[in-house]
Amino acid sequence: MKILVAVKRVIDYNVKVRIKPDHSAVDLTNIKMSMNPFCEIAVEEAIRLKEKGVVSEIIVASIGSKACQETLRTALALGADRAIQVEAEDALDSLSVAKLLSKIVKEEGTDLVIMGKQAIDSDNNQTGQMLAALLDAPQATFASEVAIEGGEAIVTREVDGGLQTLAVKLPAVITTDLRLNEPRFAKLPDIMKAKRKPLDVKTPEDLGVEIKSTLEIVSVTPPPERSGGVKVGSVSELVDKLKNEAKVIA
């Protein structure tokens, strides 16, 4: 079974994000970038399925500038077999990304797509669902457990009040939640081997996709600064502050 894993290069989650002075975008100057954490989980799950003998080949794909090849090499070092970079702008909207991924899926004839439920930079949580719609394939989002049995993916997902288990026929699209697994670290020998693994570069024109965003970022602003806390001497004082200062209770 052939599996496609979509990965995205984002600002490292340990880095404090800076906003450009004109509020037009996030400032990426000299900032550490890494693989989106949800995508790391997707790569790890694909590797585990291969280790179980379920998957024969893992293809990783990323859409963006040449810099995203670094993210693809990381996935190759972790255990993916080959990679595809679609050379495009780094900030494409979700629909454009889904269209490009759908073309790759059709060209490669993959049986399953696993991807993060969202990227931590845009937090859109859209691409997996859009990809499933474009492929007319079943989807199982926010997976916390995945098993492949008899041509189906058995996916457990967390919902309000408990767990929901779905069976979706392959080919399908699965998006990963944080509780699915704990990603491994790449070993130095595997990092060296990853440099020799195949990495193809394609363009949207190669895939027959016209990139045209319908979204415009009007302004980007940081969250308001949090004020310091205060100590109270009694429950009645706490209630008074919540009622008359914070005004969160009546």
TrEMBL record:
GO terms for molecular function: electron transfer activity. This is Electron transfer flavoprotein subunit beta. It comes from the Bacteria. The electron transfer flavoprotein serves as a specific electron acceptor for other dehydrogenases. It transfers the electrons to the main respiratory chain via ETF-ubiquinone oxidoreductase (ETF dehydrogenase). It comes from Marinomonas mediterranea (strain ATCC 700492 / JCM 21426 / NBRC 103028 / MMB-1). Keywords: Electron transport, Transport. GO terms for biological process: carboxylic acid catabolic process. Its cofactor is AMP. Residues 23-211 form the Electron transfer flavoprotein alpha/beta-subunit N-terminal domain.
